[in-house]
Automatic annotation (TrEMBL):
Residues 48-144, 150-237, 242-326, 331-424, 435-517 form the Ig-like domain. GO terms for cellular component: membrane. SMART domains: FN3, IG, IGc2, IGv. Residues 618-637 are annotated as: Disordered. This is Roundabout homolog 2-like. The keyword Transport does not apply. It comes from Gouania willdenowi.
């Protein structure tokens, strides 16, 4: 209509040109009316406009869904839908389609179709509205299909916690779209997050402070629009840690009292209760557990002191409670001070050992004096008097006015005790350095009946007293075979033993031992002085610390009869002891650091050289050197005093008692005791090897058993007292030899070789391992035993212990033999070697005697079978001969026929009794090859 109306004005002006003005005016009015009507119609139409855009949808598979879309326009626009840019087919296009276009323009799905491979409904949808004025396009809307799988990515697991601890149950729901949410159920009841202790984040159920009531079966629930999925249940177990209801308390008791420690505990599961003593084991045989938990100690002693701990434990925790036990013992004097006589200027020591618990405080007092002397008292207050932490009183540079009684008193909360000793001071020179033995007795071997000289040359002045001891026993001068010369040399006519030169003076003492061995042979080995190396030069101190001193020296150009192999270093300290002590041996260089010295102590050193003939004279004495000051000694222990007393302990080893080839009892006697001896250290070794050590705690039974020794072996043994890291002097060394035992190891590398073209074999072997040879091998036994062979054919041979092979002959073929070798000592036959088995082959061309050949052939199964076959062939041949003979007689029945057997060798020309005859002669002879020949002669 409007298009037609718009064309009218273009035609009307041509008509109007020929009309009058009135008609023109009327036409103009009509035209204006028509245009106004036409203009009103155009202004009422409009282009499409989207009023409601479709929204994103997530829909379950098989469920209906609607994508809304509303549009306006004049004329009313038509609605079309597009999916992923392609037009959507609806029921208007195909009545069978599950998609319907509603009158409102919405797209309705009867059901959502979704599969693994085909997903026709899922995608991006767009609504398009059109009319003649244009079109409008909505915003994109996605349609997604919701899924929820069955398998949880992480299912919750059982959790065990202690009450009060946080508990966490973790869960990752199944894969799904939209992402499923997680909730929890406990015992089929939904868990509420209203409890401030419970929080759920990222699939985790967290309980900050668990209670017993929180225990139960928990299920993780994954939910989205598809539905719910339940996980397998997980159990939360809430236990209770052990809780002490009654704790043990500290106790202080007297010796021999009974003590009870309580320990009452609760928990779930019921805890187990154990008692222990921090310082060691519970007293054996004197404790019992009462009422399930309490500990009772019977007849307690000071050794039972310590910390006793009750430990209660279950599967979720443990708790401990401790209590101290103190056992008081009244003070007692364990070491009484001895009366002493001293010369002026010397230093003396009074020992005063005490026992008690707690350790009593010790102090000294001179009788008649008001001054009390305490351990650790400053020297400015006590002057020449000092008391060590162990209670030893030391008086330096004694004067005559120091004579009198000195009282030692010990006091503690458990009581007190006292004792006293007398000091008498005489005039005399002040002591400085103990005597030095220049040359002591050397180890020597002399023939029986000869005279031995044991030297003991001393440096130390005319007041030196020299005495001798043999095997620890002092020698008396009544023996006419012993002569003590003026220079200290001991002349002996005979007797083996360990001889010790003991040199003493008012300044101290020294010892030197040497072994005298008397042999029946005429060989005499004595080291001459000219063969000994010259003394090293004076040692020089180069470095000093609180525990070490480094010395250097130069050797003597005179090496003696052999090169110098090593050096030994001796030290003396007036604060440590009254004798020279060997502080280092086997020193290879002319520089050495002496270790184990005491801080703030003055030392002197000498060095001796050693070659294969013995020790040299001592070097000149070094300059005095004081070690650096160290930290104060351990409370209650004076290391100097301990070392001094250990150095004075004398130990004499007795003759070892052999118990078995691998064990020996070592016994010793202690001539000078010390309260500081914690135990004894036994050193033993085979000749030339390193020392093995066995520690023995101090006891009244001075003996110990050395085990795991090697049989038939010589050992060196010595013993040394010790206190912690401090050690005393070694005893004299003794020798022992363990007896033999039956060899436990067999000969090695047994080899058996069959000789070519022979019935003999060669057997060789190696001795048992050297470290297992517990005796001298005197001989070897070799057995070659055949299976199924008579006793007289078995082979048993014996060879000397130095022989390691043997040739065995006369073996039979096709017989299984077993070869075994064993070593023999004086105690019998040892272990057998691993057997070697062999079979002699019949293919070997063995040269046997004629009798052996005949016997061997007759015994062969092949011979027996061949003999049967030969008999059968003879029988068949004889039968054939009889048959031929019978036929021939039928054919020649008119002849007079006779057969005569003429032995081979008949005289030629001999006449027969018949005129006509058939003579058949059979000649049987044996050739060299044992074949039989047959000859037949036929005469008419």
């Amino acid at each position: 209509m409007c298009l037609l109306s718009l064309q009218l004005p273009s035609q009307i002006p041509r008509i109007v040109l020929n009309c009058t003005w009135s008609i023109k005016l009327i036409l103009i009015l009509i035209l204006i009316l028509i245009k106004s009507v036409c203009s009103r119609t155009r202004f009422e139409d409009s282009a499409p406009r989207i009023l409601e855009d479709p929204s994103d949808l997530i829909v379950s598979k098989g469920e209906p869904a609607t994508l809304n879309c509303k549009a306006e326009g004049r004329p009313t626009p038509s609605i079309e839908w597009f999916k992923d840019g392609e037009r959507v087919e609806t029921d208007k296009d195909d009545p069978r389609s599950h998609r319907m276009l509603l009158p409102s323009g919405s797209l309705f799905f009867l059901r959502i179709v979704h599969g693994r491979r085909s997903k026709p409904d899922e995608g991006i949808y767009t609504c398009v509205a059109r009319n003649y004025l244009g079109e409008a396009i909505s915003r994109n809307a996605s349609l997604e299909v919701a899924i929820l799988r069955d398998d949880f990515r992480q299912a919750p697991i059982d959790v065990v916690v202690a009450a009060g601890e946080p508990a966490v149950l973790e869960c990752v729901p199944p894969r799904g779209h939209p992402e499923p949410t997680v909730s929890w159920k406990r015992n089929n009841v939904r868990v509420s997050a209203k409890d401030e202790r419970i929080s759920m984040r990222s699939g985790k159920l967290m309980i900050s402070h668990t209670r017993k009531s929180d225990a139960g079966m928990y299920v993780c629930v994954g939910t989205n629009m598809v539905g719910e999925r339940d996980s397998d249940p997980a159990e939360l177990v809430v236990y209770e840690r052990p809780v002490l209801v009654r704790r043990p308390v500290n106790q202080v008791v007297m010796e021999d009292d009974t003590v009870d420690f309580l320990c009452e505990v609760h928990g779930d599961p019921a805890p187990t209760v154990r008692w222990r003593r921090e310082e060691g084991e519970l007293p054996r045989g004197r404790f019992e557990i009462r009422n399930g938990n309490s500990l009772r100690l019977l007849r307690v002693s000071v050794h039972d002191e310590g910390t006793y701990t009750c430990t209660s434990e279950n599967s979720v925790g443990k708790t401990e409670a401790s209590a101290m036990l103190q056992v008081h013992v009244p003070p007692q004097i364990s070491t009484k001070p001895l009366d002493q006589i001293a010369t002026q200027g010397r230093s003396i020591r009074f020992q005063c050992g005490t026992t008690g618990n707690p350790p009593p405080a010790i102090f000294w007092q001179k009788e008649g004096s008001q001054m009390l002397l305490f351990p650790g008292q400053p020297s400015s207050q006590s002057g020449r008097y000092s008391v060590s932490m162990s209670g030893e009183l030391t008086i330096t540079d004694v004067h005559s006015e120091d004579s009198g009684f000195y009282i030692c008193q010990a006091i503690s909360v458990a009581g007190s005790v006292l004792t006293k000793a007398l000091l008498e001071v005489e005039g005399g020179p002040s002591g400085r350095i103990p005597p030095i033995i220049r040359q002591g007795p050397a180890n020597q071997t002399v023939s029986r009946g000869a005279t031995a000289h044991l030297h003991c040359r001393v440096i130390g002045g005319s007041s030196v007293e020299i005495s001798w001891a043999k095997n620890g026993e002092r020698l008396q001068g009544r023996n006419t075979r012993l002569t003590l010369m003026e220079n200290g040399t001991l002349q002996i006519d005979s007797d083996s033993g360990m001889y010790t030169c003991e040199v003493s003076s008012i300044t101290g003492e020294s010892r030197w031992s040497g072994m005298l061995t008397v042999r029946a042979s005429a060989v005499t080995r004595v080291s001459e002085f000219i063969q000994l190396p010259g003394p090293p030069q004076k040692p020089v101190v180069t470095e000093v610390t609180k525990n070490t001193v480094t010395l250097t020296w130069q050797s003597n150009p005179h090496e003696g009869g052999a090169a110098v192999t090593s050096y030994i270093i001796e030290a003396f300290s007036q604060s440590v002891g009254s004798t020279w002590q060997t502080v280092a041996d086997h020193v290879k260089q002319e520089r050495h650091t002496v270790v184990g010295l005491f801080p703030n102590t003055v030392y002197l050193f000498i060095v001796r050289a050693l070659n294969s003939y013995g020790l040299s004279d001592p070097s000149p004495i070094s300059e005095p050197v004081r070690t650096q000051d160290g930290s104060p000694p351990e409370q209650g222990v004076d290391h100097r005093q301990v070392q001094t007393e250990l150095g004075e302990v004398s130990i004499y080893l007795q003759k070892p008692v052999v118990l078995s080839p691998t064990s020996t009892r070592i016994s010793w006697a202690v001539a000078r005791q010390s309260r500081y001896v914690q135990g004894y250290r036994i050193f033993y070794r085979t000749i030339g090897s390193s020392w093995s050590v066995q520690d023995v705690e101090a006891s009244s039974d001075h003996s110990s058993i050395l085990e795991d020794l090697h049989s038939n072996t010589e050992y060196e043994v010595k013993i040394r007292p010790y206190f912690n890291e401090l050690q005393g002097h070694d005893s004299l060394m003794v020798m022992l030899r363990t007896p033999e035992e039956v060899l436990s190891a067999a000969p090695q590398s047994l080899s058996v070789v069959q000789l070519t073209n022979s019935s003999s074999i060669s057997v060789s072997w190696e001795p048992p391992p050297h470290n297992t040879q517990s005796g001298d091998i005197q001989e070897y036994k070799v057995w070659c035993l055949g299976s199924g062979v008579e006793q007289e054919s078995q082979i048993n041979r014996t060879v000397d212990g130095a022989v390691l092979s043997i040739l065995l002959t006369g073996l039979l073929p096709d017989v299984h033999y077993t070869v075994v070798v064993a070593a023999v000592t004086s105690l019998g036959v040892g272990a057998h070697s691993q057997p070697v088995r062999l079979l002699l082959s019949v293919r070997c061309h063995i040269v046997l005697t004629i009798a052996e050949q005949i016997t061997s052939i007759i015994r062969q199964p092949a011979f027996i079978a061949g003999l049967g076959v030969a008999a059968w062939l003879v029988l068949m041949g004889f039968s054939g001969w009889l048959y031929c003979r019978h036929r021939r007689r039928k054919q020649l029945g008119h002849y007079t026929t006779s057969f005569a057997y003429t032995p081979a060798g008949e005289t030629p020309g001999q006449k027969s009794d018949f005129q006509t005859m058939h003579t058949v002669t059979f000649n049987f002879s044996h050739s060299k090859k044992n074949n039989t020949s047959f000859t037949a002669n036929h005469q008419v």
